[in-house]
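Dock guanosine-5'-diphosphate; give full complex structure.
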Amino acid sequence: MKNFENIGMTAELNSFFNDNYPKGLKLGRVALEHKHSYRVWLEDGEYLCTLTGKLTFDAIGREDLPAVGDWVAVQTFPGEMRGIIKGILPRKSKFSRKAAGQVTEEQIVAANVDTVFIVNSLNDDLNLRRIERYLLLAWESGSNPVIILSKADLVADLKAKLDEVSSVALGVPVIAVSVLEGIGIEELQAYLAPGKTIALIGSSGVGKSSLVNYFTGFEKQLVQEIRESDDKGKHTTTHREMVLLPGGAILIDTPGMREIQLWSSEEGIIESFADIEQYADGCKFRDCSHKNEPGCAVWSAIDNGLLDENRVVSYKKLQKELAYIDRKLDKKAQAEEKKHWKNISKEVRHNSTHKRK
Ligand code: GDP
Ligand code: ZN
């Protein structure tokens, strides 16, 4: 069916497979996840696979189980299109969702994505902070972000918007796209080369399905639908979690990927790390950094097995990143304010100094 280079296999991956797995096992890529089984692309077709007991048994968390996009070692049986997944090859990148609960679980929603398209609609208010958060998410995943500003046919001041977004996304390509008018599509082609795996993230309604439909070759039908819609309507996508695009790239579009949500504000963080914050309230020092201060309640919670240390590490990391973004935005806001002030009377200036920190 597919030749392996076409679905993203590399020489390194192949030699890793040959060096680390017994002869007789076959290499495959997970295309779809059912409840207890997986659709896996092998060289000679799509197999329905289950997990070997050992893999399930050894899994500490859900991240140790296969996800869409994973390369896996499969045992097949003569004459059957069924198999058993015996191992997962190391992931080059991964997107995960953290399911909060007593123990936070990392659930991988897409693995081995080369490029992630961060889709933002040009006709909505462009939220630079949101874009920055998506960028962090992309960098953290290990895949390369490309920012897509969609519905370019709906705006007049395209250049200004592009500049605005580029200013917060140094080194990241920013591409204005309209599937309706075919704007920017050529630029996107560079990321859709054969064997490259792509995925999309972005809020609902920004045009992800439209892009997917466009890539999968439904553009005529799509343009008609957009013309007829009032920019709110939903159209149907023929859903498959991993698809081979006509141009040769692989698209991963899982429901989980669509549900990846951002912590939209400081409040959001406090919410998702509420347990850590709660312990932190009990630290001896108000400004405890939970490193090695005496009387640190966060550490005693870790020591007592009440908190997962990894979670505390990501909490700290996220706080650091947010502080960085805040500083950067502050600087920009300050610069803008300064410009503004030049034209304002002394009195007004006095008021606004006290308005914001
Ligand atoms: P999703 O929720 O991110 O998957 O967004 P959709 O693909 O469902 O698109 C949301 C709405 O935006 C639909 O009504 C589309 O017809 C419309 N839309 C998508 N792309 C474009 C575009 O390039 N131009 C215009 N004018 N509308 C678009
Ligand atoms: Zn502490």
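Observed: The domain at 94-253 is CATH 3.40.50.300 (Rossmann fold).
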